[in-house]
User: Fold this.
Amino acid sequence: MIQTLSRPGPYIAEFERLETRRGGRGGAWLMPLRRAAMARFAELGFPTTDQEHWRHTNLAPLAATPFGPADPDAHPGPEQLAPLLPAGQAARLVFVNGRFAPELSDTGSLPEGVLVRDLAPALEQPDAPLRAHLARHAAYRDQPLVALNSALFEDGALVHVARGVVVERPIHVVFVTTRQAAPVVTYPRTLIVAEAQSALSLVEAFAGLPPPGSQPPGAGAGAYFTNAVTELVAGENAHVDYCKVQRESAAAFHLHTLRISQQCNSTLAAHAVTLGGRLARTDLHATFDGPGAGAALEGLALLAGTQHADDHLRVEHLQPHCTSREFYKNVLSGQARAVFTGRICVARTAQKTDAKQTNMNLLLSDAARVDTRPQLEIFADDVKCTHGATIGQLDPDALFYLRSRGLPDGAARQLLIQAFAGEIIDRIPAEALRTQLRRELAARLPGGAAPGGAA
Assistant:
C-alpha cells in the first residue's frame, strides 16, 4: 500500500484497485517501477504556477476535477473514425478510452522486421527491446505527469523496427476518447524504437469523439483528461519522421510528454499540429546521445475561443557535431492563449553544435495572448546557436495589396493566414496527412478567423 498526500488521493485509490486486479500479472516486472512512480506522484502532486516551468499554465481546474476510468466499451463506429485516418497507411493501431480496439486496427501489410502491436499482452512476456526501453527514457522523478502515467497506464502502442529495415508508408497510432457524462481519464503510452540504419514514418493522433449514435461533436461534450507519454528512440544512422496531430474536444485536458533519444548520426523530423483541447500542453525533451545526430522539431497551434496551448521544449546537445532546428508557429483568435518555452542546452562535450530556434505568433484579435520564452544554456565554446521570437498581426500592406487585386477582405485574410500556417503543414512528409490538414485548416478559417473552439 502507498502512503499518500490527500491531493492525489483518487489516483492512489485507482492504483491500488489496479494493483489488486493485476495480482502480479499484466507486467509484474514493471510493478516495482509502477509503485515507485505512484509514490513519487503522491509526493509531488500536480504542477502549480509556483513552479517556473508551469508559470503560464494553470492546472488547478484539472486537479479539482474528479476524473474516473473511461468506459472501454463505448467504441465509435468506423464511419466516425474515418476522418481521423488519411489514406496510405502501412498499419494502424487504434485505442479507444485507453484500450486497444482490434476491430478498428490493421497491421496486415508490414514488412518483415517491423513489430506494431498493443502493449498490454507484450507486458506479460516482454522481449529485450521492451525491457530495455519502456519507461527508461521518460523519467518520472521530477515529472509528476510521467509518474502518474507510468503508474496507471494499462495499454498503449509498441512500434519496433529492426536494424536496416525501411518502412515505406506511415504507421498510424490513434488514441480516441469517447466523451461521456462524467469526467474520465486515460493514460496513452507509446514506445517507438527504430534500430540502427532503419527508417520509419509514424503519425500519433489524439481525438475526442461522441459515443456512437449520440449528438454531433461539439454539443454537450463532457470533460476528460488525456495524460500521454511517448518514448522515441532512434538508433545509429536511423531516420524517423514523427508527426503528432491533436484534435481533442473543446472540453479536454491534454497533457503529453514526448521523450526523444537519438544515437550517432541519426536524424529526426518531428511535427506537431495542435487543433483541439480546452487546455493542451506538450513537454518535448530531446537528447543527442551520439555525435553527428540531427533533429528538426516543428509545430503549429491553431487556437480559438478560450483555448490554451503550451509547448515546452528542451533540447540537450550532449555530443559534438549535432544539429537542431526548432520552428514553432501559433495562430490565435478570440481569447486564446499560447505559451512557448524553448531551451537549447549545450554541454561542454558538445563542441561544433549548430542549433537554431524560432517561434512566430500571429494574433487575429486584441484579446489573444502569447507568452514566448526562447532560451540558450551554453557551456561549450565552439558552437553556433541562435534563437528568436516574433508576435504580430496580419500585415495591413499585404491585406491592402490583395484587396486591391479584387479579393474580398475575408478571403484576403484567409489567404494570408493559410500562408503563415501552411509553412509548417507543408513540411510534413506524409502526403495524405498533409492534404488532410490543409483542408482542416481551410475549414477552420472561414473569412480569415477560426471558429470559437475546437470540435
